[in-house]
Amino acid sequence: MDTWKVAVLPGDGIGPEVVDAAIKVIESTNRRFKIAMVLQSGEAGLHCIERYGTNLPEDTVKLLRNSSCVIKGPMTTPEEPGSETSAAVKIRKMFRLYADVRPAKNLPGVPSIKKGIDLVIVRENTEGMYSGAEFAVSDQAAIGLRVITKEGSRRIGKFAFEMASKRKRHLTIVHKANILKISDGLMKNTILGLGANYRNVRVDDAHVDAMAQWLIKQPELYDVIVTENLFGDILSDEASMLVGGIGVGPSANIGENYAMFEPVHGSAPKYAGKDRANPVGTILSVKMMYEWMGYKKAAGAIENAVETAIKKGVKTQDLGGKYKCSEVGEGIAGIISRARV
Ligand code: NAD
């Protein structure tokens, strides 16, 4: 059997703590399901800039290139103009990780705005406003480029249709084509045009501002939502708040030959070193890694263990519990070890 090489970048702030908790879950899962996997840690993030002059040192790039995928903790990104591009954005571009998959699903025992939420946001990850292509015209004006291409729209549209056809067969295209008629018009019409190949999938569309309120009003009506980079970033934070908060949101960044798994949340510096961050978003991202690798039973065992732990009250403060981040990781890992397959 081949051994999977998985790179691990713990990141900044609460990153090392949530990633440590997820590693306990990985070790337990690999033992239980006899999966051969080597985890190799690398440095990346704000803390690298002083030492290496970059948030993604050359050795880390080599490590990534020599691995099948990467588990990435959140990283702090400076905001000053001219400062480093976020390491996540660099990795997405380097490996053309064009689809950012961000599920939001009710967790038993976690207060939620509505029941029956089980949706996935598929965010285009390489184009749009979020790619950060911007410049100052003078000290009075600045321009940000929002590039949308037919090929990028086709690629993400196909990915989203494929996913919808294996789920509840409903795809919603989110855009702002009433104002961004040319760019979002291109994206919307390109994706709609793919519908002929997926006749079993019901397709509709919504403006992004309307979608922000529909997600709160009727989130249970949605299945797969496909959208542009920045819209997807914002809506996926909103979607994770619907089902228990930003600490539980997982994500998978998928390309043709590589993938990156990371929680939706950031480095939450105020909680760094306090062992109180919620590791569930990172642990569910690891669950998505096993799905991507084709280990459906292992992925299912992680999801069940997360649900069991939360039902038993093994949860962090943000979910109303009193457990530490490390204890939640150990609790979930322990449930996987003891579970019957
Ligand atoms: P954030 O997600 O770090 O934190 C916002 C708030 O959400 C926190 O103050 C905290 O109250 C809560 N929170 C977040 N994660 C949590 C967890 N696991 N458990 C419990 N509560 C949690 O967002 P921010 O404050 O906008 O950003 C902080 C830094 O993170 C910035 O430098 C930003 O650039 C970076 N960031 C990185 C990523 C990434 O690496 N993928 C993503 C988003 C933000």
In a nutshell, what does this entry contain?
The chain is of the alpha/beta class and 341 residues long. The protein has two domains: 1-97 and 258-341, Isopropylmalate Dehydrogenase (3-Layer(aba) Sandwich), CATH 3.40.718.10; 113-242, Isopropylmalate Dehydrogenase, CATH 3.40.718.10.
Give the N-to-C terminal Cα separation.
Answer: 20 Å
Q: Count of helices?
A: 11
**Distinct small molecules bound, one entry per kind:** nicotinamide-adenine-dinucleotide
* Rg computed from alpha carbons, rounded to a whole number of angstroms: 20 Å
What about the largest sheet? 10 strands, mixed
The CATH homologous superfamily name of the largest domain equals: Isopropylmalate Dehydrogenase
Please state how the strands of the largest beta sheet are arranged side by side: 2-1-3-12-11-4-5-10-8-9
Unreliable stretches, pLDDT < 50, 5 or more residues? none
Describe the overall structure.
The protein has 341 residues and is α/β, with parallel strands linked by helices. The chain has two domains: 1-97 and 258-341, Isopropylmalate Dehydrogenase, CATH 3.40.718; 113-242, Isopropylmalate Dehydrogenase (3-Layer(aba) Sandwich). It is built from eleven helices and twelve strands. It has a ten-stranded mixed beta sheet with strand order 2-1-3-12-11-4-5-10-8-9, sandwiched between helices. A two-stranded antiparallel ribbon has the order 6-7. Strand 6 (134-138) and strand 7 form a beta hairpin. The longest helix is centred in the N-terminal third of the chain and has 19 residues, at 15-33. It is globular. The relative contact order is 0.18. The model has no long low-confidence stretch (mean pLDDT 95). The structure holds nicotinamide-adenine-dinucleotide. Nicotinamide-adenine-dinucleotide (NAD) is lined by residues 14, 18, 74-77, 88, 246-247, 262, 265-268, 270, 277-278, 281, 318.
